[in-house]
Amino acid sequence: MTFSLQRRRLLLAAPAIAATPYISACGSGDELPLPAGVPISPFDSASTAEQVTAGIDLTGRTALVTGCNSGIGYETMRVLALRGAHVFGSGRTLSKATDACNSVNGHTTPVVIELTDLNSVVAAASFIRAQTSSLDMLICNAGIMELQTLEQVNGIEKQFFVNHLGHFVLINHLLTHISNAPQGRIINVSSGSAIRQAPEQGIEFDNLSGERDYEPGKAYGQSKLANVLCTLELARRLRTTNTTANALRPGVIPTNLGRHMPTWKVWVLENLGKPFTKTIPQGAATTCYVATHPSLVKTSGYFFNHCNPHRPGGHTEDMQMAAKLWKISAQLTAGHRVSTIKI
Known about the structure:
Elements: H1 3-18, H2 20-23, H3 49-52, E1 62-66, H4 71-82, E2 86-91, H5 94-102, E3 108-112, H6 118-131, E4 137-140, E5 152-153, E6 156-157, H7 158-180, E7 185-189, H8 193-196, H9 216-237, E8 244-249, H10 263-270, H11 280-283, H12 285-292, E9 303-305, E10 308-310, H13 319-332
Parallel strand pairs: 1-2, 1-4, 2-3, 4-7, 7-8, 8-9
Antiparallel strand pairs: 5-6, 9-10
């Protein structure tokens, strides 16, 4: 083989090699055993949100879905409303949230939540508390992915701030309302990147600014690991209540979440990665399953994948790191926390 031919093949293969962390994030990896009694569903990676909620009547229940105006957030809102729930759908602007809410059948209410602005988060929580006496489902779905250059919010790397801290404040401001529900559920939409791309040591508490060795994928993975760890600590704090907290990885779904990724990576995922990706209805299935299925009334503190509990191990089950993350998150958002909540 000539040198020029080798070089050409290497150049052609490079994008696929570089995109391996995204494509491989669909795989199960080495699973740890599940404890006895954990519900196993009949659903899998091919199941859709409508299929996993078939026969479930959500009339009289309320839900908040952040990031309702596109992708799996939109499909989640659509299906929950289809099953009878009153869904508060949030977008970064009122026009985006309103357009999304008006385009689905069922009872929906638009809400503005700009996760980079904690005052906006607090205002949205206050609005929802004024509209309903309880909240059955809080689905923290909105997020940003792989900002190519370092951006910060209040000195914190933006992906960590938006994907974790904004939702952390939202959860705390709505926790009393969730606990008022007969069986409240908090769902954090994480990612396979929590396993594949997060820093080797887990959360870099000494580098939350992102200024040391910033890498788009690593920063995204860290924020998604934070979603899982926040869920662990929530579940521990809520263990004597009727409220559950679970996280999930929806799979790799071509949506506008990847709008900040380089064009070549998007092309690889949409073409070479197609056998490993899900459709949007499939991507929303695990969210809708965890939010609604009757078998999960007492299931809390798990990381779901393909509509079933998923134990990839590593830092995703690090209780000490989860407790530290909660403490640091509380400090970073001290001016926007609800100090009266005791959990």
